[in-house]
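thought: fold this chain, then report.
action: predict
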Amino acid sequence: MGGRKSMQWLFLSAGTGVSPSSFGAWGHRIPAYQISFRNGHPKNQKADSHTMWVSGRCYQEALEKAAAQLNVNEEHLELTQDDDVLDTWFSSALFPFAVHGWPSQTDDLDRFYPSTLLETGHDIIFFWVARMVMMGQKLTGRLPFKEVYLHSMVRDAHGRKMSKSLGNVIDPVDVIQGVSLEDLHARLEGNLLDPAEKERSRRGQAADYPRGIPECGTDALRFTLCTYKAQGEDVNLDVNTVQTYRFFCNKIWNAALFTMNALPDNFEPSPMSEMLADCSIMDLWILSRLSDTAAKINDGFQGYDFPIITSAIHKFWVQNLCDVYLESIKLSLRADAHRAWVSRNILLTCVEAGLRLISPFMPYLSEKIFQRLPGRPEREEPSICVAPYPTTKEFSMFDTSLEERVALSLDIVNRIRSIQKEFGIQKLSGHIVCNNDDLRGVLSQMCPTMATLSRCRKLQMTNQEPDCCLATTVASDCALLVEMEDIDVPRVLERLQAKLAKTSTGLKKIEAQRSMDSYEEKVPQNIREKHDQQMEVLQADSARLGAAVAMLKTAR
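observation:
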């Protein structure tokens, strides 16, 4: 929190308030006692007892003070403690050390106080955080924590504050377990909304959850919340986004299932040092990706940058491991015994390390899979919770040069997939021409992998350009040539030009809307963001379709 602002608040803050017990407040009971004389005492002044009060840390201390103040024996006095409590934030301010037995000097207090990090919302930074700082300094002489992490405020998918009258309150249990639209409507009958607000709530629920809220699970919800930017920014929580990450959980489960099915019975993993010498290019690439991912995630944890962490985890599991490496080794797993042995070990290494990377965000899924994987001989942790977190010290195989060469190969794969999709070719035949000797050697080794990933009929290196080929540049010294025999050029060209015209029309429509006067002031932010997203998609489609049309016109 800001130093100047927090110190100003601390110096100018008023005294602790009182919470009336009639409001059901909880907290420390006010240590003030009303004094009255017992029956039979000559100075019995019960009628005026409301004017006589005394404070004390306990009943006996207050009784002694009252007796001394009135110059009477204690047995003649009767004290009644005030029923009200101090402000709730007063009691909360004592939380960091009171839970460890303070004011007694307990072992827990010595061991766990002060703590390292407080995680809270920015809206109570001065109601609670500042008070804990004051109380900690005053009563223990030490700050209660070293750092404060401010989480985001969760709003609905449209950026609105959650409100029962709007019907947009998202119950985490509903997201975890799922709920039908009918059940959401039924709950409205149990609250105190007037009929008009209930109807508005029903309409809001029907608009946001026409099919109810799907079951997403705890891990998917937790992971989703961590993908949003934090440190004071609001989170517009969209249940559809949570469902997307539930599908991500399914992808992890399927990757683990593929791995376990690929391992023979009684498979015993081998140490990494025994495999590196026999690794293929793709084996070394996925280990390099794992090393880079571990580095980014650990850096993210140091800066509490959870969106960076979750993005790195998602990219490794989906784009690197599942979409590329798993597909590339399917032939290797059916190859000779030694090659298959290396691939199985690398695959298991990556899956096991990937589970450890994701375990803080998805503890249930990662633990369930971890318990079913063959254990490594050098580690025998009973649970993923106590397994060491992956670091670059454990995985130090990052190779920039290798990643650049494989990136070019994957670019060729994407080009082939794009051409097959746009031109309506099921399996094309292609050739690669490369004028760089070093790069040519790598691409020659990668040709079988590229053919597998792109699902093309044939892909090979060539020194001369074959006749009747469609050429596309991949790099300054590398080109992809596609045989034309499978392409119906007039038909494909007509279809692509129609798509391009439709895309151009959509672009012009959005551009016209954005060019209106007072667009920024009159159009809601969520609509403007939707227009920006549509614009990006249409611009990408236009560029892609335009390039395909140009290629075909050149080929004609």
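thought: worth noting. The CA atoms of residues 119 and 400 lie 37 Å apart.
final: tokens above.
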